[in-house]
């Protein structure tokens, strides 16, 4: 399988909000059965304080029709710079 990942990030500066859309394992399938399947991710994140990031993401796996939600937090010192 020849595959690549592609993503887009949209940043709203005044509200410090980021939106993202990601396509994973996008490409040409080989003749052999491959466990890597096409995946989609859609997410949003927001800085609550200068360096505290909270994010929400939804992952869709069309191969087996499963949807997984995810929530995360991070402390990002690089944002202050």
- Rounded to an integer, what's the Rg over CA atoms? 16 Å
Number of strands: 5
Spans of at least 5 consecutive residues whose pLDDT stays below 50 are: none
Query: How much strand?
Result: over 45%
Total count of helical runs of at least 4 residues: 0
Polypeptide structure, described:
- The protein is an all-beta fold and 81 residues long.
- Helices cover 0% and strands 64% of the residues.
- It has a five-stranded antiparallel β-sheet, with no helix packed on it.
- The mean pLDDT is 78.
List the helices and strands and how they pair.
Elements: E1 2-12, E2 17-28, E3 39-47, E4 52-61, E5 66-75
Antiparallel strand pairs: 1-2, 2-3, 3-4, 4-5
Concise summary:
The chain has one domain (2-80).
Task: List the defining traits of the structure above.
5 strands; 81 residues; 5-stranded antiparallel sheet; mainly beta; single chain; 0% helix
């Amino acid at each position: 399988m020849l595959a690549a990942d592609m993503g887009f990030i949209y940043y709203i500066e005044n509200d410090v909000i980021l939106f993202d859309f990601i396509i994973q394992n996008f490409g040409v399938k080989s003749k052999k059965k491959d466990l890597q399947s096409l995946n989609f991710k859609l997410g949003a994140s927001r800085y609550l304080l200068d360096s505290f990031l909270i994010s929400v993401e939804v992952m869709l796996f069309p191969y087996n029709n499963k949807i997984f939600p995810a929530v995360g937090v991070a402390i990002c010192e690089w944002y202050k710079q």
